[in-house]
Amino acid sequence: MKDCKVENKKLIHRINRIEGQIKALKAKLEAESECGQKEPFEVIRQLSAIKGAVNGMIHSYIEHYAKEHIVQEIKNSKEQEEALAIMDSLLEIMKTFNK
């Protein structure tokens, strides 16, 4: 699917940005070798930004997967039980993410 290639490119760009955030935080922590020199609120702010970026990426991936794959699988299912099993797999993914 063409949309999958586009979505994968977007995900790779997001991963690269997250990687940059992590490398910047690592460099900051390595530069501050003395424990007392750390700015705890800045470190927490950066960690929160990384967490938000990862969560946003997970949301985007789940949305893409649901719209591009789950909907099609449900349409192609022959019986209601099969469609419900497919929907249950999506719900299981969402439960895992929300832990």
Question: Can you tell me about this structure?
Answer:
0% of the residues are buried. The mean pLDDT is 86. The protein has helices spanning 2-31, 40-76, 80-97. The longest helix has 37 residues, at 40-76. The radius of gyration is 19 Å and the shape is elongated. It has one domain (2-97): Methane Monooxygenase Hydroxylase, Chain G, domain 1 (Up-down Bundle), CATH 1.20.58.1000. The protein is mainly alpha-helical and 99 residues long. It is built from three helices and no strands.
Quick structural overview:
By secondary structure, the chain is mainly α. The chain has helices spanning 2-31, 40-76, 80-97.
How would you summarize the topology of this molecule?
Layout: H1 2-31, H2 40-76, H3 80-97
Helix pairs in contact: 1-2, 2-3
Q: What would you say the CATH architecture is?
A: Up-down Bundle
Give the rounded overall mean pLDDT. Answer: 86
How much β-strand is present in the residues? under 5%
Task: Characterize the largest beta sheet: strand count, sense, and whether it forms a barrel.
Answer: none
- Helix count equals 3
The CATH topology: Methane Monooxygenase Hydroxylase, Chain G, domain 1
**What is the succession of H and E elements?**
HHH
Number of strands: 0
Top-tier CATH class = Mainly Alpha
Fourth-tier CATH superfamily name: Metal-sensitive repressor, helix protomer
Name the poorly predicted regions. none
Number of domains: 1
Structural class, from helix and strand content?
A: mainly alpha
Shape: elongated
Helix content: over 70%
Q: Calculate the terminal CA-CA distance, rounded to whole Å.
A: 31 Å
Computed over alpha carbons, the radius of gyration is 19 Å
